[in-house]
Specification:
The chain is mainly beta. The strands form 2 sheets. A 5-stranded antiparallel sheet has the order 1-4-9-6-7, with no helix packed on it. A 5-stranded antiparallel sheet has the order 2-3-10-5-8, with no helix packed on it. The chain starts with about 30 loop residues before the first strand and ends in a 20-residue tail after the last strand. The mean pLDDT is about 90.
Amino acid sequence: LDDITLITNNVLPNAHFEDWTHTSFPDFYSLTNATSAAIATAGNYWGGVSACKVTASAANGYLYISSNTFPRLLDLNDSTVSFKVRALPEVASDAWIKIYTKQADGTAQTLTSTTTNPIGEFTQLVLEDQELNDNLVEVEIRFGVTTNAKYVIFDDARLESPTTIHEYVLPKEFRLGHLS
């Protein structure tokens, strides 16, 4: 098998949203005020073979991955990261991304993208060179939709850190095989 979707220093597992053990959300991810579905129609994904369509069920619904279920995100403690994803919104500038962190003393940090994203085109949403707090007890990486009952298709997510990553979660199709 060849997989060209894997990116060196990408902390996010299943970053092209191709693995769906549960049909309602991609592996490693959860939802808040939203639903999701795998999209494998040509023109509706960016690289790989599918993407994630997130539909808000209330204003500012989102798909997220949390350190509570993927603890490796806590390794980003006191580091500088860049978070990027391709977004195809149903409504202009309806897509956003956020990095949310919480420190041991309860102090929260929310870093939000401001990238304009037109209808009908994949746009790369970017949070470049973001400095995360130290003493983190929680990290959430969020992919959001502003307008209730509207959708955004997300694909090609990456959360890059200059910290060398020594372990990667392999795509599901590799898990029963071996690397050579």
